[in-house]
Specification:
The protein is mostly helical. The protein is built from 46 helices and 7 strands. β3, α5 and β4 form a beta-alpha-beta unit.
Amino acid sequence: MSPPLLSTKLYIPSPRQGIISRTKLVEQLNTGSESKLTLVSAPAGYGKTTLLADWIEQHSTPVCWVSLDAQDNNLKRFFSYLIASLRSINIPILENTLADLSEQRSETVTDFIGHLVNQLSNHPQPISLVLDDYHLITNPDNHRALSYLLENLPPDMHLIIATRSDPPLRLAKLRAQGELCEIRVDDLRFTIDETALYFNDKMGLGLTLSDVATLMQKTEGWIVGIQLAGVSLKNNPDKHQFVLSFAGDNRYIADYLFDEALNRQPEHIQAFLLQSSILERLNAPLCNAVMHQKNSQAILAELDRANLFLIPLDDQRNWYRYHHLFGELLQNRLKQTAPEIIPELHVRASIWFEENNLLADSISHALAADEIQRVVHLTENMAVHKMDAGELADLLVWLEHQPETILHQYPWLLVARMWANINTGKLDQTEMEISDLKATLSSQPYPEELVKRIQGHLAAIRSYLADMRATDADAAIKAAEEALFLLDDRDIQLRSFVAIRLANGFSWKGDLQKAIQALKEAGNASKLAGDGELAINALSEMTSLQMAVGRLHQADQIALEIKDYAEMLAHKYGRPLPAMGILYRQLGNIKYELDQLDHALVYARQAVHLCQQGGGREALCLAYYVLGKVYFGYREYEQSDHYFDRGTEIAKQLFTEGTNIALHTRNNFLLLQGRLQETEKSVREQGLTIQDQFGFQRRLEYQNFARLLAARGEFDKALEVIDRVIKVIEEADAKRLWIRAKIVQAKIYQGLNRTDEALAAIESALGPASRGGFIRGFLDEGETVAQLLYQAARKGVHPEYCQMLLDRFDLQIEKAPAHPDLVEPLSERELEVLQHIARGCSNQEIAAKLIVSLHTVKSHARNIYGKLGVKNRTEAVARARLYGLLTED
């Protein structure tokens, strides 16, 4: 006799009090009802059942429910519950339908499904059937039967499966046919807004946005993790400290993960999880090497299907990582149960990473194993200059725990400490260590070959110091050339690194062609050496110089090719390389110059994100400046200021040539907005005068000085300075910079009422600009340049290019943000134009009435829109009536 069916397994759960309504997901479920199957697949604790209960509460059509358990692996029992759930919503399934199913022959199952489908087809209304906890079904007969039911499902029936692991159904076929709606981990994670709503509105914890963001990051939006954190926080007097220390060893988190994840796995899976937890990211070959086994690919695939807190890092599912809290739980468990094997696991990982040319990862695992000989070996192979800030901090901590006698016994550790210090901004300390190491080398009988090689490293470090400080280009070039002479082919990666420093020295002096060649050679040599990080760095910086000398489209093409190369490496290594932040920054710059602002914004945001992850402070500073520049292009000045300010905070701490130029770039954009007071102080601090002699390295500084003089009305002095800026740029043959300087010169001539000379300057800039595709240099300069372009076009000077630029000026107005107040009064002529606009006159009609050119009318209209903070004629008239600016006819 079959055991009785439990009616509780058919109850639809009621939505719990205090849940966060997932409106977007509910809508996704509504849309999914039009397909055959909705699959809600995620690990334990992601709110699958709660979401479905909430959806059913809001759903108008009938829904039946089965909560499955392990006993339902009997095929007849499984379908008994399924039929019982259908009957619970008054669908008449005949009593004898299940009669012969216990035989479980394939033809019997097929006949049974056929009878069931025929009876369901007679039901006049749409119905949905939810199978919850389907991961507990392991019987292949159940899967085959359900798959056949899915293939023949009546049009008005919809199946919903909630599961911790993907069921072995024909999902790919359903996906291809458009009959599958999928809700997965990334959909179910709480957003930052939902997390804040839960902690503060539902639980009344009063957390700061910063603490909410920290918990969001640590839990990765895992709903149960957020809820358990809330339980722990409820009676905790120091909520901020709890947030900072919250981790996988929290007792509520640990208990949940032990019960719902780890302890449910067979022993060989548990062993795999624990031992692989030492890895920040993992793939099958790495796991095979670390655990001395051959079946890691199959285990990873099994864990992936089971949704066991394993997160794929690429679309091909080659690389993975564990959910942070689950990974921390596994690491703590490994330390408790088998601490003696941890160092050996790290050594094996270190060896694998070294063999695969991932030396920074190799050093990190050698440090974790406290294997001094491996650290010496690896630092001798020069991985240190490629490590990110977090890895360098770990290296420095490890070095601090080594006795000085050990460090002097292994001088490569002293070299490693210098590289770590210099890359973490400890420049003065590095200079002292150079002197100490020189004394050490001369006082002890080290082999001559070793001394020469270390001297090469010291010269490389001196060149990098000079590069960072940007005080003496000749000293930087001399140190770089000395390093290249001393270093042999064993240090080919370091030679490429030094070549970038050499290129920077050439660039400061204005020898851009030599700089481009040095970067090209460094990039190609790095590729040959298998150092993708350096190759991306060198070639990305090369595109910036190509743009500077006027080859904008070539720079764009090469940057996109580097992007393909970089993304290939990111896929290979399971994470983006830090140098990709530099690449995306350059792509943002290039797209900005082409006035492709939407593309520029995407790349600039990616650059900031990657640099925040480990690209270094200078790289992050420059990425913020590109993002600020892009928002300036959108006329979103508050956003622009925000990112310029964030970059400036970093720049003031670094004092490198790159950040120095960035500060002057910021001043340039302040001056373009007419914000003189904010730039006056900077110029006073620099002590600039019109008698100064300066070189290419200080061109932007003095170009801003010329702008400031012009803004004060000192046009003659401004002209004297900008003429000298143009001369040093001409000597460097930097076409892009020359175009921008000539545009500034044209504006100064216009301020002197020397219109013919202003036109001549703008015309000379148009030639190389039209050939190279440069756009933003004109648009950034405002209405004065638009007027000059209009006059140039009338004279037949590059008329098509001028018209394109003028059209872009008009387009900028459409993108201008609204401002609530009239920040500048309209001129009499602008009021007159506004009056005609209010009467419905076209621009051509207004031009005829006022006896002015069409472009002049457009210019007045742009000024009116900008001052009123509107985007079009209709808004302008409405805003003008609000301010009482119009007279009634």
